[in-house]
């Protein structure tokens, strides 16, 4: 794989072990991005996750999140992916973060075969992308990454190798997107050691790739475009409905639903402005319920 250079964007990754972080000092120390631990297994949530996301965003540090995989089967991996997605929803979901969600898969305590390791990885990645709509990144140590086969090569690699020498090629990857090159770095705003990382390009290229719709996002298929156009037409119909007489009991819900933006769908399924409310109002209109006093 390629080596790092002086122009590569610098970043860190953190968890509860870094304690309280002064993110403004981290940014001032030249760190452009950070991956923060969100979850592990099927239940664990890092207690500093939400505070780290908030602090990094306020300081202008590009932020991503990772989940440490414990699963020893494909079924367990899917459950872990759902847990990760639920934790991400606490900060607005994967779409609210700058960098794609990360599967941290770096050890094998259950003694799985390479085939089983790939089955776990594929199950987690597929489930997570289905739920979040974002294509994940894979984090792993350089040695452990040798377990992954070519079926995973389409995912970007964040590789760990604590050396001045470049990571070596693996069956799935000849290039890295991110490289964790030290686990004992020192950064302003963090009292103890912290992992140091680089991105494969400059900070400008990092921001171009991940904050302007590039890189990890795939174009819509014809089927998706047709569905999106149909949704736009339904929203237009709802907006037309909003101009008609509406009983007092429905006015608040209609106003909220009419404000729904299909290009920025809301993640909170309990919100009064969710798409579910919109669909309910359309059905009620078609049943003529708005004509009743």
TrEMBL record:
CDD domains: GH25_muramidase (cd00599). One of its GO terms (molecular function) is hydrolase activity. The keyword Transferase does not apply. Keywords: Glycosidase, Hydrolase. PROSITE patterns: GLYCOSYL_HYDROL_F25_2. It comes from the Bacteria. The keyword Hydrolase applies. InterPro entries: GH, Glyco_hydro_25, Glyco_hydro_fam25_subgr. It holds the Pfam family Glyco_hydro_25. Belongs to the glycosyl hydrolase 25 family. PANTHER family: LYSOZYME. This is Glycoside hydrolase family 25 protein. The lineage of its organism: Bacteria, Bacillati, Bacillota, Bacilli, Bacillales.
């Amino acid at each position: 794989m390629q080596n790092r250079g002086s122009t590569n964007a610098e970043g860190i990754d953190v968890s509860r072990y870094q304690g309280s972080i002064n993110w403004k000092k981290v940014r001032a120390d030249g760190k452009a991005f950070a991956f923060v631990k969100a979850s592990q297994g099927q239940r664990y949530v890092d207690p500093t996750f939400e505070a780290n996301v908030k602090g990094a965003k306020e300081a202008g540090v590009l932020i991503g999140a990772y989940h440490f995989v414990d699963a020893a089967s494909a079924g367990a991996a899917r459950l872990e992916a759902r847990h990760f997605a639920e934790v991400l929803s606490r900060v607005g979901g994967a779409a609210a973060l700058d960098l794609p969600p990360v599967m941290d898969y770096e050890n094998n305590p259950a003694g799985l075969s390479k085939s089983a390791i790939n089955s776990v990885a594929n199950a987690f990645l597929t489930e997570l992308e289905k739920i979040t709509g974002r294509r994940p990144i894979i984090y792993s140590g350089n040695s452990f990454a040798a377990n992954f086969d070519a079926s995973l090569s389409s995912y970007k690699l964040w590789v760990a190798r604590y050396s001045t020498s470049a990571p070596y090629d693996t069956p799935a990857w000849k290039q890295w997107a991110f490289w964790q090159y030290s686990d004992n770095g020192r950064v302003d705003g963090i009292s103890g050691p912290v992992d140091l990382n680089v991105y494969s390009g400059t900070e400008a290229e990092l921001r171009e790739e991940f904050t302007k719709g590039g890189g990890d996002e795939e174009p819509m298929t014809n089927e998706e475009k047709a569905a999106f156009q149909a949704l736009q037409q339904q929203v237009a119909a709802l907006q037309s409905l909003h101009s008609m007489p509406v009983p007092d009991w429905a006015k608040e819900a209609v106003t909220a639903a009419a404000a729904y933006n299909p290009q920025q769908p809301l993640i909170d399924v309990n919100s009064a402005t969710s798409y579910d409310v919109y669909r309910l109002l359309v059905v009620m209109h078609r049943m003529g319920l708005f004509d009743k006093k």
